[in-house]
Amino acid sequence: MPELPEVESLAEFLRAHAVGRTVAGVDVVAFQALKTVDPPVSALAGLTVTGVARHGKFLDLDCDGLHLITHLARGGWLRWRADLGSVRPARPGKGPLAARVRLAPEGDEPEAGFELTEAGTQKRLAIYVVHDPEQVPGIAGLGPDPLAPGFTAETLAGLLRGRRTQVKGLLRDQKVIAGIGNAYSDEVLHAARMSPFKIADKITEDEVRVLHDAIVTTLREAVERSRGLAAKDLKAEKKSGLRVHGRAGEKCDVCGDTIREVSFADSALQYCPTCQTGGKPLADRRLSRLIK
């Protein structure tokens, strides 16, 4: 799933390649992905891309004040095409293509643009056309952005206070903190040397500062690693930069212990026992009580 660093990198890529160009048209292939009807998607044709922003995991193209907003969900991705003029017209079907955004030719350059695709059978990619990003429910309910200047250790302490939930789930809650998903929450907690099952309200003042530093540093480093990469290379960069997530059974780069996994109904988390839980393996929540 694309998370804050990948979406920020996609935004930077589109700022360099799409801003200033005119939208020739937007072809929606997976009709279930389009979540709004007024304004119609056809209203984007003829408008100029004036900016690209990120709201948590949402990607926002500002087209003369009309916003084309996308949430890539778990299996979605963006593919830049410099040769859209030579590609067959998009047609509804069972393939991964969800939508195609066409940008008018510019000078000697052909029609370019990007495709939104979604792998897998669970189709959750979402597309919105709105006058104001706050009209998208997922954006209106977002918590603070962890890379914003105002996201301080004190801000984090306030978000944790009084919450009797596990810190792993809290980090993934977009209404609490925007942009962190399953992968980077694992990475943050490993960097902070904190159990994913630790109760948020039990985190001490010193631990809050460590966790805050881990959040900001982990995300900023991931963004820097991805900076300047083509959209097609971001997935591989994300995977290569992860220390624990998706690496169950491998050795921890920090201590050499074996990275372990806890499985859930539709996802899994990975952690290092030595670095995070005092050497104790965490119990599978489906079978027994959790280790705090």
TrEMBL record:
Q: Which residues cross the membrane?
A: none
> What is one Pfam family matched by this protein?
zf-FPG_IleRS
Q: Where is the FPG-type domain?
A: 243-277
What are the Formamidopyrimidine-DNA glycosylase catalytic domain coordinates in residue numbering? 2-93
User: In the UniProt record, does the keyword DNA damage occur?
Assistant: yes
Single biological process term from Gene Ontology: base-excision repair
* Essential cofactor(s): Zn(2+)
| Molecular-function annotations in GO | 8-oxo-7,8-dihydroguanine DNA N-glycosylase activity; damaged DNA binding; DNA-(apurinic or apyrimidinic site) endonuclease activity; lyase activity; zinc ion binding
Which controlled-vocabulary keywords does the entry list?
A: DNA damage, DNA repair, DNA-binding, Glycosidase, Hydrolase, Lyase, Metal-binding, Multifunctional enzyme, Zinc, Zinc-finger
* UniProt family annotation: Belongs to the FPG family.
Cross-referenced PANTHER family, in alphabetical order? FORMAMIDOPYRIMIDINE-DNA GLYCOSYLASE
Please identify the protein, giving its name as recorded: Fpg/Nei family DNA glycosylase
Species for this entry: Bailinhaonella thermotolerans
